[in-house]
Design a protein that fits this description.
Radius of gyration: 24 Å
Order of helices and strands: HHHH
Distance between the termini: 76 Å
Number of strands: 0
Strand content: under 5%
Mean pLDDT: 81
Low-confidence stretches: 78-84
Shape: rod-shaped
Helix content: 55-70%
Number of helices: 4
Length: about 80
């Protein structure tokens, strides 16, 4: 049996695994998505609270980690800044 096909197969498999490892989101991107989801849920909770909806009927969640004021900053674009 020749070793060339086995070595080639190992190299192709290693290259495929390397490619797959680089395809997924980075840890930073995952953290950013989690923070965005947290902020969306806190904003929804607060909006429904402002409308007088009872806590047991609200969607989202309160700022249970106490971090919304730090990580949930609004996105401002040029139009929003110009109107202020």
């Amino acid at each position: 049996m020749k070793r060339t096909p086995i070595i080639a197969l190992v190299l192709v498999a290693a290259g495929g695994l390397t490619l797959l490892a680089g395809v997924g989101p980075s840890e930073y991107e995952v953290q950013q998505r989690q923070e965005a989801r947290y902020c969306d849920n806190v904003a929804q909770w607060r909006a429904e609270a402002a409308r007088g909806i009872a806590p047991d009927r609200r969607y989202g969640h309160p700022d249970y980690d106490g971090i919304a004021s730090e990580i949930c900053v609004p996105d401002y674009n040029g139009a929003q800044l110009a109107s202020q």
